[in-house]
Design a protein that fits this description.
This protein has 192 residues and is mainly α. The chain has 10 helices and no strands.
Protein backbone atom coordinates (compact mmCIF):
# COMPACT_ATOMS: atom_id res chain seq x y z
CA UNK A 1 0.00 0.00 0.00
CA UNK A 2 1.16 3.47 -0.83
CA UNK A 3 1.02 5.79 2.17
CA UNK A 4 -0.61 9.14 1.52
CA UNK A 5 2.01 11.83 2.08
CA UNK A 6 1.22 15.08 3.84
CA UNK A 7 1.59 17.17 0.66
CA UNK A 8 -0.72 14.83 -1.26
CA UNK A 9 -3.28 15.02 1.56
CA UNK A 10 -3.21 18.84 1.52
CA UNK A 11 -3.55 18.81 -2.28
CA UNK A 12 -6.57 16.50 -1.98
CA UNK A 13 -8.21 18.77 0.60
CA UNK A 14 -7.63 21.95 -1.40
CA UNK A 15 -8.44 20.66 -4.90
CA UNK A 16 -10.55 17.50 -4.83
CA UNK A 17 -12.76 18.10 -1.82
CA UNK A 18 -15.85 19.79 -3.28
CA UNK A 19 -18.53 21.52 -1.23
CA UNK A 20 -20.96 18.64 -1.72
CA UNK A 21 -18.38 16.11 -0.47
CA UNK A 22 -17.66 18.43 2.44
CA UNK A 23 -21.37 18.64 3.38
CA UNK A 24 -21.78 14.85 3.18
CA UNK A 25 -18.63 14.38 5.26
CA UNK A 26 -19.91 16.80 7.90
CA UNK A 27 -23.29 15.03 8.01
CA UNK A 28 -21.61 11.62 8.29
CA UNK A 29 -19.22 12.75 11.03
CA UNK A 30 -22.07 14.57 12.83
CA UNK A 31 -24.15 11.39 12.98
CA UNK A 32 -21.09 9.27 13.85
CA UNK A 33 -20.18 11.62 16.70
CA UNK A 34 -23.71 11.51 18.14
CA UNK A 35 -23.69 7.69 18.00
CA UNK A 36 -20.28 7.50 19.70
CA UNK A 37 -21.45 9.79 22.49
CA UNK A 38 -24.73 7.91 22.98
CA UNK A 39 -22.84 4.62 23.16
CA UNK A 40 -20.37 6.18 25.65
CA UNK A 41 -17.35 5.25 23.53
CA UNK A 42 -14.29 7.35 24.46
CA UNK A 43 -12.98 7.89 20.93
CA UNK A 44 -14.63 11.23 20.22
CA UNK A 45 -11.40 13.31 20.44
CA UNK A 46 -10.01 11.31 17.52
CA UNK A 47 -13.09 12.09 15.43
CA UNK A 48 -12.64 15.79 16.28
CA UNK A 49 -8.94 15.73 15.31
CA UNK A 50 -9.65 13.88 12.07
CA UNK A 51 -12.46 16.25 11.19
CA UNK A 52 -10.38 19.35 11.90
CA UNK A 53 -7.56 18.02 9.74
CA UNK A 54 -9.96 17.23 6.92
CA UNK A 55 -12.55 20.00 7.11
CA UNK A 56 -11.03 22.83 9.15
CA UNK A 57 -11.11 23.86 12.77
CA UNK A 58 -13.98 26.35 12.83
CA UNK A 59 -16.42 24.09 10.98
CA UNK A 60 -15.42 21.19 13.22
CA UNK A 61 -15.82 23.14 16.45
CA UNK A 62 -19.28 24.34 15.43
CA UNK A 63 -20.79 21.06 14.28
CA UNK A 64 -19.10 18.96 16.98
CA UNK A 65 -20.46 21.33 19.63
CA UNK A 66 -24.02 20.63 18.46
CA UNK A 67 -23.37 16.91 17.94
CA UNK A 68 -21.90 16.68 21.45
CA UNK A 69 -24.91 18.41 22.96
CA UNK A 70 -27.40 16.20 21.14
CA UNK A 71 -25.39 13.04 21.87
CA UNK A 72 -25.00 13.80 25.58
CA UNK A 73 -28.71 14.53 25.94
CA UNK A 74 -29.67 11.28 24.20
CA UNK A 75 -27.03 9.39 26.19
CA UNK A 76 -28.50 10.70 29.43
CA UNK A 77 -32.02 9.68 28.37
CA UNK A 78 -30.92 6.21 27.21
CA UNK A 79 -28.91 5.62 30.38
CA UNK A 80 -31.83 6.75 32.54
CA UNK A 81 -34.16 4.40 30.70
CA UNK A 82 -31.89 1.39 31.22
CA UNK A 83 -31.01 2.39 34.78
CA UNK A 84 -34.70 2.37 35.70
CA UNK A 85 -35.03 -1.15 34.29
CA UNK A 86 -31.79 -2.51 35.74
CA UNK A 87 -30.85 -0.73 38.95
CA UNK A 88 -27.43 -2.35 39.29
CA UNK A 89 -25.34 0.86 39.08
CA UNK A 90 -27.69 2.81 41.32
CA UNK A 91 -27.64 0.02 43.92
CA UNK A 92 -23.84 -0.17 43.86
CA UNK A 93 -23.52 3.62 44.24
CA UNK A 94 -26.02 3.57 47.12
CA UNK A 95 -24.14 0.75 48.88
CA UNK A 96 -20.91 2.75 48.67
CA UNK A 97 -22.74 5.90 49.81
CA UNK A 98 -21.69 7.69 46.60
CA UNK A 99 -25.11 8.68 45.30
CA UNK A 100 -25.54 12.42 45.78
CA UNK A 101 -27.03 15.20 43.68
CA UNK A 102 -24.52 16.55 41.17
CA UNK A 103 -23.62 20.23 40.97
CA UNK A 104 -23.52 22.24 37.71
CA UNK A 105 -20.13 23.67 38.62
CA UNK A 106 -18.61 20.20 39.14
CA UNK A 107 -20.06 18.94 35.86
CA UNK A 108 -18.53 21.89 33.99
CA UNK A 109 -15.18 21.33 35.71
CA UNK A 110 -15.23 17.61 35.00
CA UNK A 111 -16.02 18.31 31.35
CA UNK A 112 -13.19 20.83 30.98
CA UNK A 113 -10.58 19.07 33.10
CA UNK A 114 -9.94 15.40 32.30
CA UNK A 115 -10.23 13.80 35.74
CA UNK A 116 -12.48 10.95 34.56
CA UNK A 117 -13.99 10.11 31.17
CA UNK A 118 -17.09 12.20 30.59
CA UNK A 119 -19.15 9.12 29.74
CA UNK A 120 -18.76 8.08 33.39
CA UNK A 121 -20.23 11.39 34.49
CA UNK A 122 -23.17 10.92 32.12
CA UNK A 123 -23.77 7.44 33.52
CA UNK A 124 -23.50 8.74 37.09
CA UNK A 125 -25.90 11.65 36.50
CA UNK A 126 -28.35 9.30 34.80
CA UNK A 127 -28.67 7.50 38.15
CA UNK A 128 -29.76 10.69 39.91
CA UNK A 129 -32.75 12.99 39.55
CA UNK A 130 -30.54 15.82 38.27
CA UNK A 131 -32.31 17.93 35.66
CA UNK A 132 -31.51 16.97 32.05
CA UNK A 133 -31.69 20.65 31.05
CA UNK A 134 -29.13 21.64 33.69
CA UNK A 135 -26.91 18.77 32.63
CA UNK A 136 -27.15 19.83 29.00
CA UNK A 137 -26.36 23.43 29.98
CA UNK A 138 -23.28 22.33 31.95
CA UNK A 139 -22.17 20.13 29.06
CA UNK A 140 -22.53 22.99 26.56
CA UNK A 141 -20.31 25.24 28.65
CA UNK A 142 -17.80 22.56 29.55
CA UNK A 143 -17.40 20.94 26.13
CA UNK A 144 -16.09 24.07 24.40
CA UNK A 145 -12.53 23.72 25.75
CA UNK A 146 -11.88 20.02 24.93
CA UNK A 147 -13.51 20.30 21.51
CA UNK A 148 -11.47 23.39 20.63
CA UNK A 149 -8.22 21.84 21.85
CA UNK A 150 -8.83 18.59 19.96
CA UNK A 151 -9.74 20.47 16.78
CA UNK A 152 -6.64 22.64 16.87
CA UNK A 153 -4.51 19.62 17.71
CA UNK A 154 -5.78 17.79 14.63
CA UNK A 155 -5.22 20.80 12.41
CA UNK A 156 -1.73 21.47 13.76
CA UNK A 157 -0.71 17.83 13.28
CA UNK A 158 -1.75 17.85 9.63
CA UNK A 159 -0.11 21.24 9.02
CA UNK A 160 3.01 20.16 10.95
CA UNK A 161 2.77 23.37 12.99
CA UNK A 162 5.27 22.70 15.78
CA UNK A 163 4.58 25.89 17.76
CA UNK A 164 0.82 25.22 17.85
CA UNK A 165 1.48 21.60 18.85
CA UNK A 166 3.66 22.78 21.72
CA UNK A 167 1.05 25.26 22.93
CA UNK A 168 -1.74 22.67 22.79
CA UNK A 169 0.46 20.09 24.49
CA UNK A 170 1.22 22.53 27.32
CA UNK A 171 -2.49 23.32 27.73
CA UNK A 172 -3.28 19.57 27.89
CA UNK A 173 -0.55 19.05 30.49
CA UNK A 174 -1.86 22.02 32.49
CA UNK A 175 -5.41 20.64 32.41
CA UNK A 176 -4.24 17.17 33.44
CA UNK A 177 -2.23 18.61 36.35
CA UNK A 178 -5.25 20.68 37.42
CA UNK A 179 -7.37 17.56 37.18
CA UNK A 180 -5.00 15.57 39.35
CA UNK A 181 -4.89 18.38 41.95
CA UNK A 182 -8.69 18.65 42.02
CA UNK A 183 -8.94 14.86 42.29
CA UNK A 184 -6.56 14.86 45.28
CA UNK A 185 -8.50 17.71 46.90
CA UNK A 186 -11.86 16.01 46.44
CA UNK A 187 -10.46 12.68 47.65
CA UNK A 188 -9.10 14.29 50.81
CA UNK A 189 -12.37 16.14 51.30
CA UNK A 190 -14.35 12.89 50.95
CA UNK A 191 -12.15 11.13 53.53
CA UNK A 192 -12.59 13.92 56.11
Amino acid sequence: LDILKLDEFNYFIENDFSNIKKIFTIIFLFILYICLVVLNLPVTPFVVMYSAALLGTIETIIYIFFASSIGVYFSLLVNRYFNKKVKFIRNQLSKMNLLFKPNIFYIILLRIIPIVPFSWITIYVSNTDFSAKKFLFANCIGCIVPITLSAYLGKSIIENNQSMLLIIFLIFVFLIICGKLINKYLTKKAII
